[in-house]
Design goal:
This protein has 247 residues and is of the alpha/beta class. It is built from 7 helices and 6 strands, in the order βααβαβαβααββα. Helix content is 40%, strand content 14%. Bound molecules: 3-methylbut-3-enyl trihydrogen diphosphate (2 copies) and magnesium ion.
Length: 247
């Protein structure tokens, strides 16, 4: 990677990846969709190494959405197996790199195999003291679930007398999210040329910049990550303010 292209002073703190296009990548090669997911793992870990070089603090990756249960049962079953297998094969590498592993999503869902839940908890515990980068696997996640769940928990706290509804502000509400410490997204990258969020971190993306490289996820990698970040660094983030300068 040519890091001289990077402005070190405006590196996005939280980059979210909507890794899309695995199935199309496989189809184009006459392979089953699962071959696309397997190839996508290599792209994801190349991006992890790139993110560490770039100095990103939080990297999140959408690995299974609440809507992905609608896929063919064979593919769903493969994705459950694949996600736990990937964790088992990769968590030591992430640990050695100083990465802290987190999960955002509904992990109480009875459709998630118990083995997955156990590996997830173990991986979080193994890496809990790491601070070089946070890697959030966004798994069995949908923003509408997260927001509804937060509302449900706020209501329960209010009924129990632990929370005064009049004192509820945005920060308190967000403290009921899956990974409360996760900062807002600065940059969302969705591969494959689709231009949508598909229920990904809607609240956290309120002021994110977006990058939509027309690359199928298995062809993505650290160079493509750097391209999106350089593009991001050219953007003018105004957060509702006005700029007054000659055009
Ligand atoms: C993204 O690739 C991976 C997951 C959703 C798990 P897809 O499987 O959505 O690939 P396409 O969009 O069908 O090409
Ligand atoms: C979004 O991709 C979910 C993940 C990347 C895990 P999809 O491929 O499932 O999204 P849609 O169906 O095209 O919106
Ligand atoms: Mg897709």
């Amino acid at each position: 990677m040519d890091l001289s292209r990077l402005d070190r002073s405006t590196v996005p703190r939280h980059v979210g990846l909507i890794l899309d296009g695995n199935g199309r990548w496989a189809n184009a090669r006459g392979l089953p969709r699962i071959a696309g997911h397997q190839a996508g793992e290599l792209a994801l870990f190349d991006v992890v190494h790139g993110a560490l070089e770039i100095g990103i603090e939080w990297l999140s990756a959408y690995t299974f959405s609440t809507e992905n249960w609608n896929r063919d049962p064979d593919e769903v079953q493969f994705l459950m197996f694949f996600n736990r297998d990937l964790l088992l094969r990769r968590r030591d590498e992430l640990h050695d790199l100083g990465v802290r592993i987190r999960f955002a999503g509904d992990l109480t869902d009875p459709r998630i195999p118990d083995e997955n839940k156990a590996y997830m908890q173990e991986s979080e515990a193994l890496t809990a003291a790491n601070a070089r980068m946070h890697m959030v696997f966004v798994f069995n996640y949908g923003s509408r679930w997260e927001l509804t769940e937060a509302a449900r928990r706020v209501a329960a706290a209010a009924v129990a007398g632990d929370l005064d509804p009049d004192a509820l502000d945005q920060a308190t509400f967000a403290s009921f999210f899956s990974v409360p410490e996760m900062p807002d997204l600065d940059l969302v990258i969705r591969s494959s040329g689709e231009h949508r969020l598909s229920n990904y971190l809607l609240w956290q993306a309120a002021y994110a910049e977006f990058s939509f490289p027309g690359i199928l996820w298995p062809d993505f990698g650290r160079e493509a990550l750097l391209d999106s970040i350089v593009e991001y660094q050219r953007r003018d983030r105004r957060f509702g303010g006005a700029i007054d300068r000659p055009t």
